[in-house]
Hints:
Layout: H1 4-58, E1 75-81, H2 91-110, E2 115-121, H3 123-129, E3 137-139, H4 153-167, E4 173-183, E5 186-195, H5 219-292
Parallel strand pairs: 1-2, 1-4, 2-3
Antiparallel strand pairs: 4-5
Amino acid sequence: xxxxxxxxxxIGSVSSSEKITGAMKMISSAKMSKATxxxxxxxxxxxxxxxxxxxxxxxxxEFSSPLTAERPVKHATVLAWxxxxxxxxxxxxxxxxxxxxHLNNMRSxxxxxxxxxxxxxGQKLQRACQALAGNGIKVQPAPEGVNSKADGDxxxxxxxxxxxxFERGETDRVDVVYMHFISAGKQNLVAEQLMPITPRTGSSxxxxxxxxxIFEPDAQxxxxxxxxxxxxxxxxxxxxxxxxxxxxxxxMAMQSANDNASKLLEQLRLEYNKLRQQSITAExxxxxxxxxK
Length: 293
């Protein structure tokens, strides 16, 4: 049976855990806010690039790019984003399940003989993906310095290496699997094609109706300049989405842990007060029994 000293020690331990999870929740909330600001900062650049490409598609001009070249898929690359740190609930597990489903879909689409290279970004996901190696699937660690927290030059170099591999014909298709951030309480798993690039011009007003444009220096040069920038902005956005989603998952996990700690603390305090009351009652009875004698 638990003693008052034992219960007091457990109450102190749970109380400390509650404070720690509360602090971690606040830290994750701040990091999530920072990541969402980065996403919003990228949107105008991405929107302008889509508008430029939409204008090109709406004009009577001929253009081509190695990034839009479609060829029979004999080798595919799948980039998957997870986390480097834990304490984010089932975040990495859900991404890994989506990755498995996407790999099965690719096998169904291109046949069992297609070779697939999986490049996991984030140590937690990388460890999980080691079990996938074999049967035509190769797991290739992300380049040094590229992780779930990477930004700036690391993202540019990573994008350039993936782009170069596609242009050299080392891979025929590049897909991405990541968690799309919608809000602090909602994130969606996304698996989509990155290369060959299919410009998203459905939302562009300029692509709805043909127009007359004067291109300087020429449409081909503009197209070949805009597409790599669009590719880079897409990868940058994925990194930001991943960071925001990871922190959102950690906020929810810390909130759940904090709620559980609060419930446990309430139960322990109730048990402690009951045991203390029983102890006091027993001492009073002993005193009264001694007076009667």
